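Quick one, T. Sequence first:
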Amino acid sequence: MTMAVPYDAEVFDRVDGLIATTQTWRDLLVKRDEDDEARAILKDWYGDGPDLIRKPVFYVGQACDPGFRQPMPRRTLRFRHAFTNGDAIGYFGRIAPATMPTIAMTGVMDVARFFPQLQFIYGGFVRKPVTNQIGLQVPPIAYDDMPAAIAACTAVVGNEEKDADFLGSGKIIDAMAVGTPVLAKLNPVRLEQLGEDYPLFYRDRWEAALKLHELVTGGGPFRQLIADFMVKRLELHHPDEVGRRLYEAWRSL
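Structure tokens:
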């Protein structure tokens, strides 16, 4: 078996099955060759050619890193200082104009006019320099330090680019493991990962600002409620659970 993305005609012909990390992606692939809407959505990744997906596609999910469950307190404190000791809203991922979470960032700035301690923080691998950007850019953070950086944030923001609507994002799983709330753009994969009852979904800058205001003013009890919610959802992404689904997929071939 191999991952269902990126598309490689030779590899796809040789394997017995394909692996999708989200149910949304798996369902689109299964429907692609007969459904015009699914084909249009997947065009950027698979092109327009017919009959590309001739092998069974299995959903296995994304596994969390157990090392994220217990961030080191001293490292977390160090990042809090680096993040100006305020309410940091963090984005840690690919840095480029097309990948930045613009909707959420604008919502953060709307709320920050009334809460000066609020600060948008972003850092990661710079694919293309970002100019005229709001917030504080921090140097790239080592993987081993990422749990502490996430724990130092009041909330983190997920990707808003097209990939995230269907492929998902490991950053959401990382935040779940740490217990830091995620301000998440509403899309099929976020519903799949966080559940329909998750309280911090947004569709536009105004809803992002409203949810962030609730988070900042709700204090510790509200944040703990969200953290408990995320820990429960994390069970779906435990390595043992993902391994079980992968084993069942392998046995079915």
